[in-house]
Amino acid sequence: MIVPMEQRHVQQVHQIEVECFSDPWSLKAFEEELKNPQAITLVAESSDKAVMGFVNVRYLFGECFINNVAVSAPYRNQGIASQLLQGLEQEIISQEGELITLEVRKSNLPAIRCYQKHGYQLVGERKNFYENPQENALLMTKFLTAPKERRTI
């Protein structure tokens, strides 16, 4: 089940963050996300309330930027990331969002394929974006509205 992150999820979300990323966010950073009106964190929760994965984003003026998508190793290749992306898309559409964008390591082919499967398009590349190890990032975006429908700020 995909649900908004609550305080009871924070420790498990942080553990997955540490497991999956070379430069993980702190536990305090995830606690702060609960108070941030521009942050959305959704978790994939098992029937026994274990957090299997999460997606964390910033949402502002119709644009959503994915900070992190992570699935714990025992739950990979079970469609959890797809469920998180679908849940996120539904949430952003319900708030009249126009697009979702993200950066992904150029070498992370499984993630790139997952994003492409969900309609994300390659729109750019950021040189030496990642550290530890240093690597380029691909910039991918999913447009939720047609260009003529997009608002200007």
Shape: globular
Nearest-integer average pLDDT? 93
Provide the CATH superfamily: Gcn5-related N-acetyltransferase (GNAT)
Task: Return residue spans where pLDDT drops below 50 for at least 5 consecutive residues.
Answer: none
CATH third-tier fold name: Aminopeptidase
Number of domains: 1
Largest sheet: 7 strands, mixed
Number of helices: 4
Subcellular location: Cytoplasm
Protein name: [Ribosomal protein bS18]-alanine N-acetyltransferase
Main location: cytoplasm
Function: Acetylates the N-terminal alanine of ribosomal protein bS18.
Task: Give your account of this protein's structure.
It comes from Clostridium facile. Its EC number is 2.3.1.266. Belongs to the acetyltransferase family. RimI subfamily. Residues 1-145 form the N-acetyltransferase domain. With 153 residues, the chain is α+β, with helices and mostly antiparallel strands. It has a single domain, classed as Gcn5-related N-acetyltransferase (GNAT) (Aminopeptidase, 3-Layer(aba) Sandwich), CATH 3.40.630.30. The chain has 4 helices and 7 strands; from the N terminus they run βααβββαβαββ. The protein has helices at residues 10-20, 27-33, 80-94, 109-117; strands at residues 2-4, 39-45, 51-60, 63-71, 99-105, 121-130, 135-143. It has a 7-stranded mixed sheet with strand order 1-2-3-4-5-7-6. The longest helix has 15 residues, at 80-94. The N and C termini lie far apart (35 Å).
What's the short story on this structure?
With 153 residues, this protein is of the alpha+beta class. Helix content is 27%, strand content 36%.
